[in-house]
Specification:
single chain; alpha/beta; Rossmann fold; 7-stranded parallel sheet; 38% helix
Length: 203
């Protein structure tokens, strides 16, 4: 368990920039920041200073962790680009932001979010399905937020849109403190996933 967790040096975190959420979501984001910092894991995220993005970054920094932001220039004001990060990279567009965030992480954690977070999460799942991203993908199910998403993904498998093996691509946890253990027990994944990325026809 410890061996695999120790291989996770940097975690890509997807999160909302909304400032209109219930307090339980901000508290969970702060706990995740502290957990990752305490485990010696750096964070790479979207660079925002507001919402869950700001909460996870602030908590990690306060806990002595390193936090690296990637933000498009046109979102610096909208997402209140964080001013105290370990590093901040300003890029030209969303496509490059997503590419850099995913490529620089050994694992992914998706906090609750809106369509932007969904897009990032599903791109990570797609890249894992194709064998381009091999790390754990964990959905932090604060307040039951991702239960419907998990059921939807399972329905996709049940109806033949994804293979049974794809159920191993993600894990659902209720509490931030469960994230390191989720990394540790995540099923191994390799480029061989391409062999079953297309679901075979029913005989």
């Amino acid at each position: 368990m410890k061996t695999k967790t120790m291989n996770i040096k940097r975690v890509t975190v997807y999160a909302s920039s909304s400032r209109a959420l219930d307090a339980v979501y901000y508290q969970a984001a702060e706990r995740l920041g502290r957990v990752l910092a305490g485990a010696g894991m750096d964070i790479v995220y979207g660079g925002g200073g507001s919402g869950l993005m700001g909460a996870v970054a602030d908590a990690a920094l306060s806990g002595g962790g390193a936090v690296h932001g990637v933000i498009p220039d046109f979102l610096l004001d909208l997402e209140q680009g964080h001013q105290r990060l370990t590093s901040m990279e300003v890029v030209r567009d969303m496509r490059l932001r997503k590419e850099l965030m995913l490529s620089r992480g050994d694992a992914v954690v998706a906090l609750p979010g809106g369509c932007g977070t969904f897009e990032e999460l599903f791109e990570a799942l797609t890249m894992k399905r194709l064998g381009y991203f091999l790390g754990p993908i964990v959905l932090l199910n604060t307040n039951g937020y991702y239960e419907g998403c998990a059921q939807f993904l399972e329905q996709s498998v049940a109806q033949g849109f994804m293979a049974r093996e794809h159920l191993a691509m993600w894990q659902l946890v209720s509490d931030p403190e469960q994230v390191p253990d989720a990394f540790a027990v995540a099923p191994d994944w390799s480029e061989d996933a391409r062999q079953f990325c297309s679901v075979p026809a029913i005989a």
